[in-house]
Amino acid sequence: MSLMPDYHMHTPLCRHAAGEPIEYAARAVELGLVEIGFSDHSPMPRDDFDDWRMRYSQLSEYVEKVEAARRAFPQLTIRLALEVDYLPGGEEWIRHLASLHPWDYLIGSVHYVSDTWDVDSPFKLSEWKKRDPFEVWSLYFERLTSAAASGLFEIIGHADLPKKFNYVPKEDCTPLFRKFLEAAKKADCAIELNTAGLRKDCREIYPSSRFLELAFAAGVPITFGSDAHAPGEVGVDFDKSLAAAKAAGYRKFRKFAGRKWTEASLP
């Protein structure tokens, strides 16, 4: 039985990743993966919004880079996708992006809890010291719930991202998780098991085991991603994410093509 596809991988166009898609694909073949997906950070309406995503003028270049990887490795199924930031009021922009190319899926992510603060930025750690963690997590999950409810995404990325730097509320966040998961279930939206958390201060997969148990109980489907920003990170720690999925009760996961899903059995 084949390994799960790695659906969360980046390219140098986002300005904080190394290695071309062909190199990521080569690594995937080495690992025995039969399917991967590129989901680089999508442009914002303003190219100067931040410095960690591709510019609007680079979208066609991004697509061509993925196509080049497809030509180089015809034995590997390579999906074309985007990781799209969800900001309240930005729905029309997301619909516009969705119309531009034949995407296989869109990953909806929340990084910003305000117009200027991306909570996972190592350059803005001082912002955490000004705020109560539960307040930040509440704002984050309010936006993440709206992202799931929007129906604009097939997958929600790194669902408990605010834990990255170990700023975790003392309060019980279960109600926040449950509200989000209800929205995801209603919109038929998957969440990913993202192994990048194991490489961050929190040293934990996104989402946590408790969160994942709640997701399974809510009937929310899953996908898998490494959030690779270099070829050596492709498929990394997938053994751990597979074990976490099974421990939570999952036996199936979703695959995507042309923004339609099929279900497959876990290895």
Would you mind describing this structure in some detail?
The structure is a single chain. This protein has a six-stranded parallel β-sheet with strand order 1-2-3-4-5-6. Strands 7-8 form a two-stranded antiparallel sheet. It has one domain (12-265): Alpha-Beta Barrel (TIM Barrel). It starts with 20 loop residues before the first helix and ends with a strand. The mean pLDDT is 97. β5 (190-194), α7 (209-218) and β6 form a beta-alpha-beta unit. The protein has helices at 21-31, 59-72, 91-98, 125-128, 133-149, 174-186, 209-218, 238-248; strands at residues 35-41, 77-85, 105-109, 155-156, 190-194, 222-225, 252-257, 260-265. It is α/β, with parallel strands linked by helices and 267 residues long. The chain is 33% helix and 16% strand.
Write the SSE topology:
Blueprint: H1 21-31, E1 35-41, H2 59-72, E2 77-85, H3 91-98, E3 105-109, H4 125-128, H5 133-149, E4 155-156, H6 174-186, E5 190-194, H7 209-218, E6 222-225, H8 238-248, E7 252-257, E8 260-265
Parallel strand pairs: 1-2, 2-3, 3-4, 4-5, 5-6
Antiparallel strand pairs: 7-8
